[in-house]
């Protein structure tokens, strides 16, 4: 064992000695071969980067505290919070050019049946405090029947001044209607071969003073109005009329206390008649007006004096309830009144009136009406109501026995009852298309007469407006009426001026057929000043009668030019 260790040790030292000897020999050889000169410029100084100098962990033993000297200066100032969203200031825009208003126009036209139209309107222009203006119109036609001529003239001058606390307005109106008693009986060709002329003249003056509206809840409002006219025909009939109206209202919270009063003075004269017909009305009321409801309760006190004398008191109650704002309202009314009859009112309805007409008032004893109204959305409106009315001494037209082409006025002695339905619609599809319509269905129950003469049971009217573009527009209108009954006496009544109970044995009933009257019109604007128009009436050329023996004109077409300035 020892011999083995000795052998390994000897080999190890022998190898180490050989390696040492070889290394010394190589260095000796290198020194002998390399011969270089090394020039040292500066001593080598190692440079470390700043990041290397940082300690990897802080020195926790460094507890030295540095206290800076501070000087305080306190200012007394309010803290302003400017964290809110700032309001944007509207940028001023350039002033818009003021539009030029056209306040005046003149119109002229002509057409078939010797139609002649002249019209003019004048106004002082844009003025918030003062308005002055005038209107004139002439329209005449000549039908195909013997002396089937008619002409209408109207001249009106008006003014209104809005003062600080009041508004004052006034109007002067002059009208003339010329016609002939051209009524014919087709069964008697020789009847009325030389019709008489008739001319109805009407002059009216009106003035009004109104207290301007104020927001004061306890304000006192009032109004005064005066109206008077003079009427006459071509013969000897004359009528004078004057009415004075006053209105007073006091607001107290949700209540209104008020009084409406009027006085009417009228006098009608003819060759054989003279009637003074005067009325005094007093209508005190109390009104409750809250959100969604408006109720007015009062009485109507009417005093007749002059040729007739009576005192009557009627209820005057109205109510309006809003169930759905802007969409549905329910309303109702109960009232009574005395309706003053006049020659002016009769001839407005029937211009072929006879002479020496009996004037008598009609008592509307009790009227009830109820219905709904509202809108069904933008451009759609509606109204529907039912009504029941009772009249004493209802005036009716009948043909005179001696002159069938003239009409007398009789009064249905007793209680006449009227039950009816009324409906209205308004549809505006757009700014270019609008349609309106109205329907009346009436059921007349006369007191003594067989029928309520010349009172239609059905009447429909409708208007249509279509704007094709800024220059061209169209319009249409239609009127529909059903048959009416007329009364002709085959024998002379005993006393026509005191007609009370009809004698069916001496009367003949005629049927005046219903009609459909359709009209069309068009307007074309050439520029801001000139435009042309055309209109056609009775397009169906229906030869119908509104009153017995009086046939209307057939198809009539006319047109003309309008100048605005």
Q: Quick recap of the structure?
A:
The protein is mainly β and 565 residues long. The chain is built from 3 helices and 26 strands. The chain is 8% helix and 55% strand.
**Share of residues in helices:** under 10%
Structure summary, number of beta strands: 26
Structural class: mainly beta
Written as H for each helix and E for each strand, in order along the chain, the element string is HHEEEEEEEEEEEEEHEEEEEEEEEEEEE
**Residue runs with pLDDT of under 50 for 5 or more positions:** 22-33
N- and C-termini, Cα separation:
149 Å
Question: Which geometry do the CA atoms define?
Answer: elongated
Mean pLDDT: 87
Instruction: Please tell me how large the radius of gyration is.
Output: 51 Å
Q: How many strands, what sense, and barrel or not for the largest sheet?
A: 22 strands, antiparallel, barrel
The number of helices is: 3
Strand content: over 45%
What this model shows, in words?
This protein has helices at 2-33, 50-53, 343-349; strands at 105-111, 115-123, 130-142, 149-162, 166-180, 197-211, 220-232, 238-252, 255-269, 274-290, 293-306, 310-324, 328-339, 362-377, 380-399, 407-430, 433-445, 458-467, 472-481, 484-489, 507-512, 515-525, 530-537, 545-547, 550-551, 556-564. The chain has 565 residues and is mainly beta. The chain is built from 3 helices and 26 strands.
List keywords for this structure.
mainly beta; 565 residues; two-stranded antiparallel sheet; 55% strand
Layout of secondary structure:
Blueprint lengths: L1 H32 L16 H4 L51 E7 L3 E9 L6 E13 L6 E14 L3 E15 L16 E15 L8 E13 L5 E15 L2 E15 L4 E17 L2 E14 L3 E15 L3 E12 L3 H7 L12 E16 L2 E20 L7 E24 L2 E13 L12 E10 L4 E10 L2 E6 L17 E6 L2 E11 L4 E8 L7 E3 L2 E2 L4 E9 L1
């Amino acid at each position: 064992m020892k011999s083995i260790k000795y052998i390994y040790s000897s080999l190890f030292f022998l190898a180490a000695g050989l390696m040492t000897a070889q290394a010394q020999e190589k260095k000796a050889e290198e020194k002998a071969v390399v011969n270089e000169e090394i020039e040292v410029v500066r001593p080598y100084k190692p440079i470390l980067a700043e990041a290397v100098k940082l300690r990897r962990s802080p020195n926790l033993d460094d507890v030295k505290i540095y206290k800076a000297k501070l000087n305080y200066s306190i200012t007394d100032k309010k803290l302003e919070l400017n964290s809110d969203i700032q309001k944007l200031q509207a940028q001023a825009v350039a002033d818009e050019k003021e539009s030029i208003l056209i306040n005046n126009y003149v119109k002229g036209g002509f057409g078939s049946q010797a139609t002649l139209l002249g019209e003019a309107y004048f106004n002082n222009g844009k003025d918030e405090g003062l308005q002055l203006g005038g209107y004139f119109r002439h329209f005449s036609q000549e039908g195909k029947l013997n002396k089937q001529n008619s002409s209408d003239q109207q001249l009106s001058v008006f003014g209104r001044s809005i003062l600080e606390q009041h508004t004052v307005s006034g109007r002067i109106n002059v009208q003339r209607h010329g016609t002939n008693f051209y009524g014919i009986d087709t069964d008697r060709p020789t009847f009325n071969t030389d019709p008489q002329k008739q001319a109805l003249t009407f002059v009216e003056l009106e003035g009004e003073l109104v207290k301007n509206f104020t927001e004061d809840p306890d304000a006192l409002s009032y109004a005064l109005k005066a109206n008077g006219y003079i009427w006459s025909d071509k013969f000897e009939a004359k009528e004078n009329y004057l009415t004075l109206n006053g209105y007073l209202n006091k607001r107290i919270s949700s209540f209104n206390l008020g009084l409406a009063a009027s006085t009417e003075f009228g006098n009608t004269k003819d060759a054989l008649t003279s009637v003074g017909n005067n009325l005094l009305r007093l209508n005190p009321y109390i009104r409750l007006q809250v959100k969604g409801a408006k109720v007015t309760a009062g009485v109507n006190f009417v005093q007749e004096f002059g040729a007739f004398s009576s005192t009557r008191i009627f209820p005057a109650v109205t109510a309006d309830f809003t169930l759905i704002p802007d969409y549905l309202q329910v309303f109702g009314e109960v009232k009574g009144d005395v309706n003053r009859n006049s020659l002016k009112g009769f001839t407005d309805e029937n211009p072929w009136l006879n002479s020496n007409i009996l004037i008598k008032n009609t008592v509307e004893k009790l009227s009830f009406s109820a219905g709904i109204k509202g809108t069904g959305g933008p451009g759609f409106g509606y109204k529907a109501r039912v009504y029941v009315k009772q009249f004493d001494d209802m005036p009716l037209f009948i043909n005179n026995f001696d002159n069938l082409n003239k009409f007398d006025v009789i009064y249905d002695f007793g209680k006449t009852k009227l039950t009816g339905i009324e409906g209205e619609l308004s549809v505006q599809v757009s700014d270019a298309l609008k349609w309106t319509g109205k329907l009346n269905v009436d059921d007349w129950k006369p007191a003594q007469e067989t029928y309520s003469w010349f009172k239609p049971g059905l009447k429909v009217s409708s208007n249509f407006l279509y704007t094709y573009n800024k220059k061209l527009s169209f319009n249409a209108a239609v009127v529909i009426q059903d048959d009416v009954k007329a009364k002709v006496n085959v024998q002379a009544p005993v006393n026509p001026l005191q007609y009370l109970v009809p004698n069916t044995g001496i009367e003949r009933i005629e049927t005046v057929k219903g009609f459909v009257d359709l009209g069309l019109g068009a307007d074309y604007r050439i520029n801001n000043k000139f435009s042309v128009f055309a209109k056609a009436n009775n397009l169906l050329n229906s030869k119908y009668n509104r009153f017995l023996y009086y046939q209307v004109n057939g198809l009539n077409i006319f047109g003309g030019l309008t100048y605005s300035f």
